[in-house]
Amino acid sequence: MLHLLPSLITLSSVFCGFDAVRRAASARSGDDVQRAALLVLVAMVLDALDGRVARMTRTQSAFGRELDSLADLVSFGVAPAVLVYQCTLHRLGLAGVLGGFVFTACCAIRLARFNVLASRDAGRDAPPPRYIVGLPVTGAAGVLVAIVMTEGAAGGQLGGAGAAPAVLAAMLVASLLMVSTIRFRSFKDLRFDTGTALLIAFALGSSALVSARWTPGFVVAGLTGAYVLLGVVESLWRLPRTIPRFRSHDEEEFEPQRHREHRGREGREKRI
Q1: Beta strands 131-133 and 183-185, pairing class
Q2: What is the pTM of this model?
Q3: Spatial distance between the Cα atoms of 181 and 234, rounded to a whole number of angstroms
Q4: Could you tell me the mean pLDDT of each successive run of 10 residues in the chain, 272 residues long?
Q5: Which ranges constitute the DSSP H helices of the chain?
Q6: For the packed helices 164-179 and 216-242, what is the interaxial angle rounded to 10 degrees?
Q7: φ, ψ for residue 3 (rounded to 5)?
Q8: CA nearest neighbour of 232 among 131, 142, 138, 147
């Protein structure tokens, strides 16, 4: 029975994604869309929980990994796209439909790439990686959920026709980040020490303050935006180290000659 627990948690995430789609598709008011956005947040919590439960109970399996990917596609690929379409993108017609499809397609590509890399490293006894390639689907979904949840706090302005192109652009940027090679922190290597405890306390305290002062939507927007910005800034910081030193054609052409002259001098010195 214990080995079924992670799968049950994953299926609960699927239910949240399905119900979010149902509520968004039949929404009659902004409150229905807000409730659907909250269901996606609950799915994020369940997604973070099922993997940890599987590791704690030592019930990890290839079946669980594949099931988790399918659940993520529903809860973080389809549901957020439908949410934003119902909230704003429906005003753009075909462009809004294509924007939602691009997001869902990039989510599927991101998950397929993750499964390939996970299968390749399955037999290795290595610690969890510090970084993962591409924006996680939960992070991309968080961007869209933040847009939906802050729409009510902004007086409905994000749902207007004037904001629709900007919302579409944000969705496309999140889509491209998912399939990019930018590395984002996984936070799986964190150790619970004094620094980590202080950081968590600060995040929880500031989130509670912002939520009480304004709206929980700004908390989601702040945390998601900080995570995305951290990954982009760290990648730009590492970029000069990954670029090989440029050498001109003349340098490459005369490099063997310099080596021969250097070896010749060394030989003469030894003979002397």
Answers
A1: antiparallel
A2: 0.79
A3: 13
A4: 82 94 84 88 90 81 87 94 91 93 96 85 64 90 89 58 86 94 77 66 69 70 85 82 52 46 50 48
A5: 5-25, 30-57, 62-72, 79-87, 94-120, 137-153, 164-179, 194-213, 216-242, 249-271
A6: 50
A7: -70, -15
A8: 131
